[in-house]
């Protein structure tokens, strides 16, 4: 028996992932969709803007979830792909006069290529070493954007102002309201794509690599191809999120995409539940609203309060929002039986 056969034989069996394990049930999904459609009609524009950012960061966290939760590759460099997507949309809108909606697929394709190419040398790395390599990418990106060679396009240190689009066809709604619903439509489309991707043959290959890379290779999975493909898809979705973020904030600057953003996205993935796509919105809500709550509790010690709140969340629910959802589902099941 060869060494590969021994590894395959001794490896513990991996339980098949149920079809609904990565998403919500139809009833819950419809309720969530109704909330996302109705709530913006009842709140002020600033809250609508926050909800838009919730969806945008949710997309970026979802992209990281595909990479880490789907294929088992750790990345601390998502802020670099987010920055590339943001600058792509901003430059196309302000310098080339391209419609804001058309800039998003272009940003996605450029970031997909960037992530796929970065994934090639990253094939030699795994675990903490891959995390360090992506950390270096996130650290270097803001400095690269400040180079004088790109200053005509990027605006250098001063950044670039982006024009927020008006509602089309004369629709009677504010810019913030229109951008929210536009972002919601893009988010739903990418979410459906992501769920179908993880349920497809490619998604099963991702998860096989995540669970046991040697066993996946022995079963005929092209490990190099699918690992780089996971990087590309994750970077592409993050690029679309970055483009939406640039349009929503109306401004891009190198210092907006530091390693802090990358760590925040990684934190959102952990809080939402690694490998559970609906948790991306929960993780996004955590990184957007909890810092504000911490500052409301103590402005002078907001960082310490945030750290305590994060510790409590990780201690009480180590598997994130997915663990809460499972417990809630079990309680509902018991109530139905009674």
What is the topological layout?
Blueprint: H1 3-10, H2 26-38, H3 45-71, H4 78-95, H5 100-122, H6 128-145, H7 151-154, E1 160-161, H8 175-199, H9 201-211, H10 213-218, H11 223-249, E2 251-252, H12 259-272, H13 279-297, H14 302-316, H15 321-337
Antiparallel strand pairs: 1-2
Helix pairs in contact: 3-8, 3-9, 3-11, 3-12, 3-13, 4-5, 4-6, 4-11, 5-11, 8-9, 8-11, 9-11, 12-13, 13-14
What would your notes on this structure say?
There is one protein chain. With 338 residues, the protein is mostly helical. The protein has one domain. Helices cover 72% and strands 1% of the residues. The protein has a two-stranded antiparallel ribbon. 41% of the residues are buried. Residues 1-21 have low confidence and may be disordered.
Quick gist of this model?
By secondary structure, this protein is mainly α.
